[in-house]
Amino acid sequence: MYPADLKYTKDHEWIQMTGETGRVGITDYAQKQLGDVVYLELPQVGRILKVGESFGTVESVKAVSELYSPVSGEVVAVNADLVGAPDRVNSDPHSSWMVEIRLSAPADAEALLGAAEYAELVK
Description:
Elements: E1 7-8, E2 13-18, E3 21-26, H1 28-34, E4 37-41, E5 48-49, E6 54-60, E7 64-68, E8 73-78, H2 80-84, H3 88-91, E9 99-103, H4 107-110, H5 115-122
């Protein structure tokens, strides 16, 4: 259920690493808890983030929730297509990346949960 090529946070974000950068989104578990996602507020490119810092919000029919950075680094891309169609998170949360971050401390990603550990956390 949780792709093995992603790393996960206890706050229900995922990151997919590609070299020095990682794309970040929310997990299937988070999406199910939120219900239908209807709005995303994401940061500007160039914003510097620290591990655990809020970088935006996701709004659903049930609630508004903060999004937390799984790593420290600089936002190098924002998925504008997803901002325009946030409902895509509902059908495929593990492919719906929100921001891409250039890591300032690659060890941050190593400290995250693997798929099996995350599955155990949310069962």
